[in-house]
Amino acid sequence: MDTLEAPQQAAPDWSQIDAEICCPRCGYNLRMLERPRCPECGLSYDWADILEEARWQSDFLFEHQWRKRPLRSYLATILLSLRPTRFWTRVSLHTRPHPRPIWLVFLSVQAWFLLVMYAIVYASTALATWSLRQWIPGRGYPPLAHELFLISNNVARFLDDYGVRVQPLLALWAALIVLVCLRQTLARCRVRGVHMLRIVAYSAAPLLFFWTLLTLMVGLAGGFTIKGARFQGQSALLAALLGCVVSLGIFISVGARRYARLPRPWLVGMVTAALSVLFGFTAVMLWRVGY
Ligand SMILES: [Zn+2]
To answer: Contact 186/193 with Cβ under 8 angstroms?
Structure first.
């Protein structure tokens, strides 16, 4: 017996425990084990955490609170997920996952995103139309109305492109597929798919929020003439996509590191993001040329 071992690391009295006690990472049944280490995937843990996990519930997460406080927990989950580092300190592998509410958050965030994109396109089209009407007979357009038209028209045109709307959604779904396919090689053993779903689902809100701001800024910038050139078309889209790779990479890395506690989280995040955005880009390109 190792005398340096802390008292709480002694094996629990299994005869007193009714609940199913499983490894939070791979789901291996830990009943009757002596050492606080999963024999299947090698995860080390405290017995206290593992035992608590059986009844551990998050106090804010929609997954656990949707019956009691659906709206509040939904908003709290999405708002906190916008800050991934803080989010993953409050949601751990020990927080019991419930796939259906996770899917609901994942899908609804994408619906909100499309709604916001259409609202921005609608508003900027209305603004462009309004500024077109500022024509004064004999004097033409006032300079401000002319600028306003160029900017709002460019925002409307850039965001109305279905590539800009669909690209980040394709990237998210591709990231989920990539992570589920990679999960065999990420740790010493197969990581449960629901953890990958969680990482991607809770990365959706920050990614789509960032993408909305980014494409709005690129659209605004394209309305200005800088050194005789306009920042539009393919170069504008590529700049936005690069931003998408970096941000998605960061969000997945933070989840892989703080939540799944995987080795080499930055590599996992960046490779996944690069593959996923490339997949989305290729899919939109193929769609465009008519495959
Ligand atoms: Zn395990």
So the answer is: no
Q: Which two tokens stand for residue 117?
A: 């994109």
Express each pLDDT in 11-29 by its tens digit. Answer: 888 887 766 677 888 878 8
CA of 29 to the centre of ligand 1 (A): 9
Positive or negative, the Cα torsion across 84, 250, 252, 71? positive
Taking the centre of ligand 1 as the mean of its atom positions, its distance from the CA of residue 21, in whole angstroms, is: 11
Residue 188 Cα to ligand 1 middle (Å): 9
Q: Which residues pair with 37 in a beta bridge?
A: 44
Give 137 Cα–ligand 1 centroid separation in angstroms.
76
Cα-Cα-Cα-Cα dihedral sign, residues 164, 169, 174, 175? positive
Distance 214 CA to ligand 1 centre (A): 39
Tokens describing residue 99: 């796939």
Ligand 1 geometric centre to CA of 94 (Å) = 12
Report the alpha-carbon distance of residue 188 to residue 41 in Å, rounded.
6
List the one residue out of 253, 222, 224 whose CA is nearest residue 235.
222
Per-residue model confidence as pLDDT tens digits over 14-72 = 887 766 677 888 878 888 898 889 999 999 988 888 777 666 767 789 998 888 889 99
